[in-house]
């Protein structure tokens, strides 16, 4: 039995899902193929994902392929109650999610999704897989394999594998080119700034925007912030990424230096305490704090609460103002959670089209390939990544060159010289 906020919201959810579906032509093609081939027939899937219209399009695709799906939310602030209602009412999906639910309710929903006894799991942040390995070990023998959607989750999975704790194969869907190169760079880059602007109505032109982390997400953010006229400062712990940022013309500083001048701070590292009490003490009046990493640990919100003498909640939607003893005001967006999903609508559907196409095709591959895979973290087969890119190009009416037989021979021979 599903646990959602209000099933009467289904009509609005259907309209929004259909709007997203218009921008997801690759996933639509896969859905049509799945409906004919039924590669997931009889399989039970438990998913812990952001419950958005784009996710709904993925769930419909998996169900078209024959799977039964139980869905829990991977972030209470990103749950769209109307989307959840539409999935329950129109598609027969078991959904366990309510917008704004507390931590206890969040994990209760994950447990409810797991109670369906999944054959495959889809995760976004590794909380579902973590719960399986710590609290629901009784279900592990029937889980064949799974997929992980985000950088933070892949990091956790690799640690589990190194410690010998991972009990079934997991595929790092996050690491495909059509996911991290486009979803992280173009999706996070646009949607994060969208969330910040919606929440604060601030003008980024002329502001100093400090971005913690220069992976694909950080690069996308930096490019788009610069395009809006901001002065961009990068903080990094990786010398190679820091050098890359510097050679692209961005200022690179330690956070303790950047904290003094920054107007807007955005964390996208996958680590904790990236903005800590030391940094908060240095920030100017009115500094804006936003996180676009998966978990709400990148900004030390507890330290901010302890430093504040007053907190003004809801000064704008998803915007809280913390007043410090010296009168400075620091502005925290979305409680330190994913600002692009809590204060905006997440990635554009056109970007999620590729990420979720990767997910769907990988699930179909795992339905048969799982038996030959060890309990480890695996890459998505290259042919899946290439197929998604090919389908996306075709949907955009873009053609590319093909290798001639002579070119194929040349690339595969070591005997031909200059």
Summed up:
The protein has 418 residues and is α/β, with parallel strands linked by helices. It has helices at residues 10-22, 25-37, 53-64, 81-91, 103-114, 127-134, 151-162, 177-200, 216-227, 239-247, 255-261, 277-280, 301-307, 339-342, 349-369, 382-395, 405-411, and strands at residues 44-49, 68-73, 94-96, 120-123, 145-148, 170-172, 208-212, 231-235, 251-252, 264-267, 288-291, 308-316, 319-324, 329-333, 377-378.
Write the layout of secondary structure elements.
Layout: H1 10-22, H2 25-37, E1 44-49, H3 53-64, E2 68-73, H4 81-91, E3 94-96, H5 103-114, E4 120-123, H6 127-134, E5 145-148, H7 151-162, E6 170-172, H8 177-200, E7 208-212, H9 216-227, E8 231-235, H10 239-247, E9 251-252, H11 255-261, E10 264-267, H12 277-280, E11 288-291, H13 301-307, E12 308-316, E13 319-324, E14 329-333, H14 339-342, H15 349-369, E15 377-378, H16 382-395, H17 405-411
Parallel strand pairs: 1-2, 1-4, 2-3, 4-5, 5-6, 6-15, 7-8, 7-10, 8-9, 10-11, 11-14
Antiparallel strand pairs: 12-13, 13-14
Helix pairs in contact: 1-3, 1-4, 2-3, 2-15, 3-4, 3-15, 5-6, 8-9, 8-15, 15-16
Keywords: Cytoplasm, Hydrolase, NAD, One-carbon metabolism
Family: Belongs to the adenosylhomocysteinase family.
Subcellular location: Cytoplasm
Short key terms for the protein model shown above:
alpha/beta, 45% helix, eight-stranded mixed sheet, globular, 15 strands, 2 domains, Rossmann fold, seven-stranded parallel sheet, 418 residues
């Amino acid at each position: 039995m599903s646990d959602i906020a209000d099933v009467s919201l289904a009509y609005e959810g259907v309209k929004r899902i259909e709007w997203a579906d218009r921008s997801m032509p690759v996933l639509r093609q896969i859905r049509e193929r799945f409906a004919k081939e039924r590669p997931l027939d009889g399989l039970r899937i438990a998913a812990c994902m952001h419950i958005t219209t784009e996710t709904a399009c993925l769930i419909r695709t998996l169900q078209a392929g024959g799977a039964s799906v139980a869905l829990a939310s991977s972030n209470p602030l990103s749950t769209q109650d109307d989307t959840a209602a539409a999935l329950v009412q129109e598609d027969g999906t078991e959904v366990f999610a309510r917008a704004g639910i507390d931590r206890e309710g969040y994990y209760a929903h994950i447990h409810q999704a797991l109670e369906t006894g999944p054959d495959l799991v889809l995760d976004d942040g590794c909380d579902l897989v973590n719960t399986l390995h710590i609290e629901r070990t009784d279900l592990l023998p029937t889980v064949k394999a799974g997929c992980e959607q985000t950088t933070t989750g892949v990091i956790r999975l690799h640690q589990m594998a190194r410690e010998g704790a991972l009990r079934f194969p997991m595929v790092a869907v996050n690491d495909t080119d059509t996911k991290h190169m486009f979803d992280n760079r173009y999706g996070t880059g646009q949607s994060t700034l969208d969330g910040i602007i919606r929440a604060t109505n601030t003008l980024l032109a002329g502001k100093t925007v400090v971005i913690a982390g220069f992976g694909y997400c950080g690069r996308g953010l930096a490019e788009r912030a610069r395009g809006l006229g901001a002065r961009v400062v990068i903080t990094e712990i990786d010398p190679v990424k820091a050098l890359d940022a510097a050679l692209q013309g961005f200022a690179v500083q330690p956070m303790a230096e950047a904290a003094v001048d920054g107007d807007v701070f955005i964390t996208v590292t996958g680590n904790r305490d990236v903005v800590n009490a030391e940094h908060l003490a240095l920030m100017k009046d009115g500094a804006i704090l936003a996180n676009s990493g998966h978990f709400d640990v990148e900004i030390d919100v507890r330290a901010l609460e302890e430093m504040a003498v007053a907190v003004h909640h809801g000064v704008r939607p998803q915007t809280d103002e913390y007043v410090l003893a010296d009168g400075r005001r620091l502005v925290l967006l979305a409680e330190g959670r994913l600002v692009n999903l809590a204060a905006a609508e997440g990635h554009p559907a056109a970007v999620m089209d590729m990420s979720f196409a990767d997910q769907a095709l990988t699930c179909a591959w795992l339905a048969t390939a799982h038996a030959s895979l060890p309990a480890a973290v695996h890459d998505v087969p290259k042919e899946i990544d290439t197929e998604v890119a090919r389908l996306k190009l075709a949907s955009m009416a873009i053609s590319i060159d093909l290798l001639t037989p002579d070119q194929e021979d040349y690339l595969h021979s070591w005997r031909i010289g200059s």
